[in-house]
Amino acid sequence: MYVDTHCHLYLPEFDQDRDAVLRRARAAGARWLLLPCIDAGCVPAMLRLCAGAPDLCLPMLGLHPTELPPDPSAQLSWMEQQLRAPGHPYIAIGEVGIDLHWDATRLAEQTAALRTQAGWAARWRLPLIVHSRDALAATCRTLLPFAPGLAGIFHCFSGTADEARRLLRAFPRFALGIGGTLTYRRSTLPDVLRQAVPLDRIVLETDSPYLPPHPLRGQRNEPANVPLVAARLAQVYEVPVSEVYARTNAAVRRLFPHLDLPREDRVR
Ligand SMILES: [Zn+2]
Questions:
Q1: pLDDT, tens digit, for every residue of 40-90?
Q2: Which domains does the chain show, CATH number per domain?
Q3: What is the pLDDT of residues 212-231, one digit of tens each?
Q4: Spatial separation of the C-alpha atoms in residues 247 and 249, rounded to whole Å
Q5: Residues whose CB is under 5 A from ligand 1 (ion)?
Q6: Distance from Cα 201 to the centre of ligand 1, integer Å
Q7: Which residue from 16, 111, 163, 259 has the least number of CB within 10 angstroms?
Q8: Do 2 and 204 meet the contact criterion of CB atoms below 8 Å apart?
Q9: 117, 112, 131, 5: which is closest to 66 by C-alpha?
Q10: Whole-model pTM?
C-alpha cells in the first residue's frame, strides 16, 4: 500500500477517464492520492474530485511559482481566507516555491509569494510542498527562517548529493519527493540517493500527468505507476520493495499524522 504524495488528477488531461484512473490506482495499491494545487482557478475541480472520492483524494492549497499572475495579492488573500475557515479540507500548503527555469525575471515576486505561503504553513501547522527548479539556493534562503517549525516535501528533487545532504540537515522535518525521473536511463538520482539520502527521508510521488517513469515516457503519467518508482528505489537501496513501501509510508505518517495509513505495509 502506498501514497502518491503529488498528483494533479483534477487537470483536464484526466477529464475523459478520471474514474478509471482512480480505479487503477486503487488496484495498484494506492491508499491516498495527495493533490497539489497550482492556483485558485483549479480549486473547484480539485474539490469536486476530492468530494467524489473522499477516501482516496485529498486537496492542498497554494499558488505555484509558474502560475503567478502579474499581481498575486488577490489570489493569495482568497487562499488565506480559505485557510481561516474552520474545518477546511486542505491537508498541506502546496505546491509553492521558486522556478527560474521558465522565467528568471520574477525572482523577487516568486520569493515574496513563497514567503507568504510558508508563513501560512507555519501558522496553521500544515506541511509545505515545495517546487524548486533552477532555484535551490533562493528557495532555501527563503525557507530557512521557517525551518525549525516547518515540515514538508521537496517535490521532484533533482539536485546533487551535496545539495541533498545540506537540504536534509537544514530542514530536519522535510522529505524528498521521488518520482519517475529516478527511472530515467541517464538520471544521476540513483547515485545521489545512495550517497546522501536515507530511505526514511523519501516519499513517493508521480507528479501526474507529468514525468512518467521508464518505460512509459511520452505517455500521460498516473498514480498507478508508483510501483515502477518503488521497484527502482528497491534496487537503489538493495532492499525488498515491501521495505520501500513501509519506510516511505512511515515518512508520510510523520508528515501527515492524521492520515489513516495502516502500519501493515503489505502491497496487494
Ligand atoms: Zn506538481
A1: 999 999 999 999 999 999 999 999 999 999 999 999 999 999 999 999 999
A2: 2-255 (3.20.20.140)
A3: 999 999 999 999 999 999 99
A4: 5
A5: 207
A6: 19
A7: 16
A8: yes
A9: 131
A10: 0.96
